[in-house]
Amino acid sequence: QVQLVESGGGSVQAGGxxxxxxxxxxYSVSTYxxxxxxxxxxxxxxxxxxxxxxxxxxxxxxVKGRFTISEDNAKNTLYLQMDSLKPExxxxxxxxxxxxxWACTLRNELYSWGQGTQVTVSS
Length: 123
Description:
- By secondary structure, the protein is mainly β.
- 0% of the residues lie in helices and 51% in strands.
- It has strands spanning 3-7, 10-13, 18-25, 32-39, 46-51, 57-59, 67-72, 77-82, 91-99, 112-113, 117-122.
- The strands form two sheets. Strands 2, 4, 5, 6, 9, 10 and 11 form a seven-stranded mixed β-sheet that branches. A four-stranded antiparallel β-sheet has the order 1-3-8-7, with no helix packed on it.
């Protein structure tokens, strides 16, 4: 059974940085498609960044050049480094995993989810 536990959220001023972590249990992050999604109040959950089992990454246009997704296989942990944060980045951020038999995309389908961690960016 896949278990994902996020941490690292908080409140920060615009232009600041945060690093989110996602500890995984029950499987190896390096063998799955791993991703970060976010959901703001009143909006649909959207894909932010994903990393495939071959290490390739993809990002939503809104975060390219500001966010970096990475893995530490020894710690079985997924990260999201968020720099130059903007108020519109405010949302609940979710770690997600799905089998590598499927293409590793930012579409909200076939993923297992963590409980989420809140990120709030003030102007």
